[in-house]
Amino acid sequence: MAETVVSMARALVGIAVSKAASAAADEASLLLGVQKEIWYIKDELKTIQAFLRAAEVEKNKDELLKVWAEQVQDLSYDIEDCLDEFKIHVKSQSLSGQLLKLGDRHRIAVRIRNLKSRVEEVSNRNTRYSLIKTTSSSSADERDSYMEDICNQSANNIDESELVGFATPKMELLKLIDISCDDGPTKVICVVGMGGLGKTTLARKTYESKEDIPSYFSCCAWVTVSQSFDRKEILKDMIRQLLGADSLDKLLKELQGKLLVEVQHLADCLVYGLKDKRYFVVLDDLWSIDAWNWINDIAFPKINNRGSRILVTTRDAGLAERCTSEPLIYHLEPLQIDDAVHLLLRKTSKGQKVMETGENMKNIVTKLVKRCGCLPLAILTVGGILATKKIAEWGKFYEELPSELESNTNLEAMRRIVILSFAISS
Prior knowledge:
Rossmann fold; leucine-rich repeat; alpha/beta; 3 domains; Apaf_helical; P-loop_NTPase; 63% helix; 20 helices; nucleotide-binding; 426 residues; five-stranded parallel β-sheet
């Protein structure tokens, strides 16, 4: 019984993720002031999805896990209902040419913010009660795959409002994108760097540049590819974002008589709709050349001399080189020491007064960010924990942190920093 509940919860979360991605990409979410909340919901649901995927292979599923999965189901239904209402209001607004009524805008915004809080609580509940563990009942490969999913989704959940040191990378990336060049073939630009550097955040800051991207491109889409993705759902989501929800609804109605909606039906609709448009598409978290070859071959027009752009984020430099040429690859580097220290102090809410308590404390703070590899995710994780500790305890906390990230900025080292930080704090 618990097995069925977990599988059903994962399926429902997948639907909610797709709807949240579509809603976040809609300009109306920006006007309502809830775009960041919807992005957060989408990213946190992806993390929950990764945990549920790990739970599906566990042999011993207890009652607590079943209850948690049922809570995830209920939450997914509520998110779907809310985003469906959001979509209906946006559609009626576009048809009437009038803004949403103030009462409707306020009510929907409040519902979305409440859902964000519920998503956060449900996600924390899993961590609090250790409901899902990657035990020996899973193979090593399965365990690594699930942990990579979880770690990378955590990396995606970096709060942009907390970040520093991203103004220059954003400016440099916009230069590579060269938005003012509105003719010529489609260009592919890649952002490369390990999990936790903030690739997704940089891409999102660029994507949401109100003064840049929307004013130069006729349609835009944000697509999270990740390690395992549903081909039909990705194409549906791209049609929804690039051509409009009406285009997808019309296509699905036309295909109602068919036994199966084939990938090719969706691809043909997308390619035809994009052939005369200048589009901007982000493919976030690309993992394999097979995924790139499939998306590039099937989803985009072969000829489009409109100056369209595809922005890819990936951890794999070799993959980036196969997607585009070296001049169009942006290598995101760890933060500068000063920015890393600023970020840590901002997260702890202690500010510069910590640095004024003595030379020894300056050294401890500097050593802490170096031990985090100057990676935003690790710094924010550690900073969140230090915020709950007395300043006098920071030195002891530093001594207990693993040192891998100082010399080895890979996923395993990042994972140890994140997991052991919580272990030390408890």
